[in-house]
Amino acid sequence: MKLIHILAALPFIGLLLGIPFANKVTPYLFGMPFILAYVVMWALLTSVLMAIVYVLDKENKREEAE
Amino acid sequence: MNAALIIIFGVLLFSMFLGVRAQKGKDMDLEQWTVGGRGFGTVFVFLLMAGEIYTTFTFLGGSGWAYGKGGPAFYIIAYGCLAYILSYWLLPAVWSYAKQHKLMSQSDFFIKKYNSPLLGVLVSLVGIAALIPYLVLQLKGLGLIVSETSYGKISPTAAIWIGVISITVYVMVSGIHGSAWISVVKDIMILAVVLFLGIYLPIHYYGGFQDMFQQIENANPGFITLPETGQSAAWFSSTVLLTALGFYMWPHTFSASYSAENPKVFRKNAIIMPLYQLVLLFVLFVGFAAILQVPGLKGADADLSLLRLSLQTFDPWFVGIIGAAGLLTALVPGSMILMSASTLFAKNVYQVFAPRTTEQQVSLLAKCLVPVIALIAVYFTFKGGNTIVTLLLMGYSLVTQLFPALLFSLFKHKIVTKQGAFAGIITGVGAVSYITVTETTIGTLFPALPQAAKDLNVGIVALLLNVTVMIAVSLVTRKTKSTAADQAA
């Protein structure tokens, strides 16, 4: 298991396993009920994590060199 | 003719103009027509794939779910994230194999990987069976949008005919180039409209987002979270997972990936798409804003919440812009679906049984099938009744059954044989059909299980059966093959 795979697995853990613990209205975050804010936070984190994966991934460097 | 209708028809004519113009200067063989000559960069592939994801189901259905179901609607934001992560590895693998073998359709992929044209026929038929209800859904949405925003002047029936004729014409003339250009117009409009509505309506009617949610919570406690039973946390997780796996299995989404010029396009998209899909958050806000303002829409009528609230709030010219944006969310996916279904049938079903057909004939047949498939969808649209969402969910469960066979085909070590893939898909599709028709849930199958297990999406069962049969049959067929080889030696 490489680092990029672990990074990519985090949203799966957060969204699939974490949701029962986030299933509540309060506290409100940015005007949204907690559960909605939690899902939105993972959408933002997914983008950040995939950007890190993109930078770390050797595949992309290899293709640039070609 | 009111201002709303003038704007809607203006946008319709403009997108048709773009679509027809897009094919100028290109030699329209089947490869140009369906996969754009494999020359689309990040922006176009992004728009095409986003175009297919933001359909009338998300525009009307997303707000409808927020309005009618509350918390469970949050799954719409979650599944995309996981699908995009998968796409980072899945789509480049699919793309390079497709390019290497000059593949055009999703079925071509299975044919080549498993060396079995008959498996291609099965995959095509599953794909077409799933696409037709999806197309019906777009047409129904189109009818709702045009007739609502015309203040009842145009009947849904007339609206559906106008839409279906427009889609058919530009798909036949320009193929995927038309869809890509119209995607550009559509994405700009939908983005602007949805962001505006999602921000303006909660502030206009409630004074802010938190105020809106608090008032909903006071009126109906627990509505904006997941319920204890039914669409509970267990339902949420299993549905998000299943939908993420099925995400790229739609024939039109799968083959749209062939149009990229290089695999890095997908990896970049995996970074942008999770942000872009947050547009859906604003669609949900609209649905929530409608709850206390246009109450009383029951069942399938919940899908009208966005349009009804807009009609109540805005002047006709702005309703026209909303209607035009909605019209495009139906046209773009509708055209992609039509093109995929007709290409699949011509190339992967007809040509298998009539192998002497030339490429030109297949290309011609594919184009001629466009109006035929459009008419079949129109027939179901008028006949279908209220079971549209059931049909869409069934379509999703159907295409998800192709995922295991695809996944196993990507590994270097070939575990699954063509017989295994065939048996697995048949089993999965059979299970989905049985479950849908009999309205089985895990609770009715296994009443003794704890509640969380009962709430799991029943599609999980179909997928497990699929994988089990696939591996079992593969082991048996592999064994007989190797013993036959031993005897021959």
What does this structure look like?
- Chain B: It comes from Bacillus halotolerans.
- Chain B: It is a multi-pass membrane protein.
- Chain B: Belongs to the sodium:solute symporter (SSF) (TC 2.A.21) family.
- Chain B: One of its GO terms (molecular function) is transmembrane transporter activity.
- Chain B: Its main location: membrane.
- Chain A contains 4 helices and no strands.
- Chain A is mostly helical and 66 residues long.
- Chain A has one domain (3-65).
- In chain A, helix 1 (3-17) packs antiparallel against helix 3.
- Chain A is elongated and about 45 Å long.
- Chain B is 78% helix and 0% strand.
- The longest helix of chain B has 38 residues, at 316-353.
- The radius of gyration of chain B is 23 Å and the shape is globular.
- The chains are: A mainly alpha (66), B mainly alpha (489).
- At the A-B interface, helix 1, helix 3 and helix 4 of A face helix 5, helix 10, helix 11 and helix 13 of B.
Please describe the biggest sheet of chain A, giving its number of strands, its sense, and whether it closes into a barrel.
none
Please count the helical segments of chain B: 23
Number of strands of chain B: 0
Distance between the termini of chain B: 81 Å
Rounded to an integer in angstroms, the radius of gyration calculated over CA atoms of chain A is 16 Å
Total beta strand runs of chain A: 0
C-alpha geometry of chain A: elongated
Fraction of helical residues of chain A? over 70%
Low-confidence stretches of chain B: none
CATH domain class of the largest domain in chain B: Mainly Alpha
CATH topology of the largest domain in chain B: the name is: Sodium/glucose cotransporter
Largest sheet of chain B: none
Order of helices and strands of chain A: HHHH
What is the averaged pLDDT score of chain B? 81
Proportion of residues in β-strands of chain B: under 5%
Q: Assembly type of the shown chains? A: heterodimer
Number of domains of chain B: 2
The figure for the number of domains of chain A is: 1
Terminal CA distance of chain A reads 27 Å
Mean pLDDT across all residues of chain A, rounded? 83
InterPro entries (chain B): Na/Glc_symporter_sf, Na/solute_symporter, Sodium:Solute_Symporter
Keywords (chain B): Membrane, Transmembrane, Transmembrane helix, Transport
Family (chain B): Belongs to the sodium:solute symporter (SSF) (TC 2.A.21) family.
GO molecular function, one term (chain B): transmembrane transporter activity
